[in-house]
Design goal:
The protein has one domain: minor pseudopilin epsh fold (3-Layer(bab) Sandwich), CATH 3.55.40.10. The strands form two sheets. The protein has a five-stranded antiparallel sheet with strand order 5-4-7-8-9, covered by helices on one side. The chain has a four-stranded antiparallel sheet with strand order 3-2-1-6, covered by helices on one side. It is elongated. The chain contains two helices and nine strands; from the N terminus they run ααβββββββββ. It is of the alpha+beta class and about 230 residues long.
Length: about 230
């Protein structure tokens, strides 16, 4: 009986000793974790202010480049819309064996650049914002042309739009009685009929900047080429 009691006491002390060791280990681990947390309290207010200032500086540096990129993308889409309108009028003329015209205007109320594609003999019935179907805000750019009259190129590109300056394709899809302008030396080629879209100047939004896109027509057959910047002057 004494031996049994002794064994039970030994088991009790061993169990108590193991529990004590576990408690000590837990407390030691807890103290280590608490000490680590105290050493890494997070960012200070000064550090946050410095990070925000740096982020603002980087944004200020990157913003002009991003704005220029967005403007160029919008301008490319607007120029594509001009080309699509001219091609549509040419196709309709060939298909229906009738003359079709394209005219542009600036809406004085909305400031949108608008376009009309119509049968020449019936006249304009509907205007629509240029590039609206491809997500372009046409009030953000200028549209100009060197048309002095129907199918006739003048010497300069004007951003004051007139419905009398229009392009007309005859029943064969050609530009009948077209005048492509006078060559300016040293060039021997006439400038051609130009439809230009441009980013407004920062100093004067009514004037065009050097960032431009254009469609140029130089042949009676109505073949069209896309150009940019100085080629659109």
């Amino acid at each position: 009986m004494r031996n049994i009691t002794t064994l039970k006491l030994l088991d009790y002390f061993q169990l108590h000793s193991s529990t004590t060791k576990l408690k000590q280990q837990y407390l030691a681990n807890r103290a280590y974790i608490d000490g680590y947390n105290q050493q890494d309290p997070g960012f200070t207010l000064i550090e946050l202010i410095v990070v925000l200032l740096l982020a603002g500086i980087l944004a200020a540096i990157a913003a002009p480049g991003w704005v220029a990129f967005v403007n160029q993308q919008q301008l490319n889409k607007a120029n594509d819309a001009v080309l699509a309108a001219l091609q549509e009028a040419q196709r309709e003329a060939q298909k229906k064996k009738l003359s079709y015209s394209v005219s542009f205007q600036k809406n004085s109320t909305t400031q949108n650049v608008e376009i009309a594609i119509y049968r020449t003999d019936t006249g304009i019935s509907t205007w629509k914002p240029l590039g609206a179907d491809v997500g372009v805000s046409s009030d953000k750019f200028l549209l100009g042309t060197n048309l002095s009259s129907e199918n006739s190129a003048g010497s300069n590109v004007s951003y004051t739009l007139s419905t009398s300056a229009k392009m007309t394709f005859d029943y064969m899809g050609t530009l009948s009685n077209a005048n492509f302008g006078t060559a300016t030396p040293p060039s021997t080629e006439p400038p051609g009929i130009k439809i230009v879209v441009a980013v407004p100047s920062r100093q004067n939004p009514s004037l065009a900047s050097n960032v431009k896109r254009c469609i140029i027509v130089k042949t009676l057959l109505g073949s069209m080429i896309a150009k940019k910047d100085s080629d659109c002057n």
